[in-house]
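Query structure, 156 tokens:
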């Protein structure tokens, strides 16, 4: 696996408050693409779905359409999780940025619509997209790291 630069993530109470108070600008009825992982990875994703919290960063769970055990959402799709996604091309970039949140490593891709983060060193890739209100705040990962760590084994 290609390595990338890892940066530890230190969250402040202020950052958590900012995340919890953010408002969504994304339409909840927006359709997302459901991943099509191999059967072994889909089983890990189903286990992850059972462990996901009802709230992330203070946002209630509101799963996107189409409904699937491979996807989840919180706060009118301000936070969207897809499990079993393909390996991101950016993961091969030696200049790629990574963060560690509670023992789970994530590749950080900054986008105008908000950050996209994908797990690294796990038996399947879990992608989390955050709305633009989280452009400089990835604290929602603190609510997701535990379930990922519990259900998607590491590969290192």
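Result returned for the query:
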């Amino acid at each position: 696996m290609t390595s990338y630069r890892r940066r530890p993530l230190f969250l402040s109470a202020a950052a958590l408050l900012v995340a919890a108070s953010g408002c969504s600008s994304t339409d909840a009825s927006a359709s997302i693409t459901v991943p099509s992982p191999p059967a072994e990875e889909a089983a890990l994703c189903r286990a992850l779905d059972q462990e996901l919290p009802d709230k992330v960063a203070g946002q209630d769970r509101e799963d996107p359409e189409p409904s699937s055990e491979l996807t989840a959402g919180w706060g009118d799709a301000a936070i969207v999780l897809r499990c079993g996604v393909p390996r991101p091309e950016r993961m091969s970039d030696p200049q790629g940025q990574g963060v560690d949140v509670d023992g789970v490593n994530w590749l950080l891709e900054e986008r105008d619509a908000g950050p996209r983060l994908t797990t690294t060193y796990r038996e399947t890739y879990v992608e989390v997209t955050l709305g633009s209100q989280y452009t400089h705040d990835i604290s929602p990962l603190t609510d997701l790291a535990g379930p990922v760590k519990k259900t998607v084994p590491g590969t290192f």
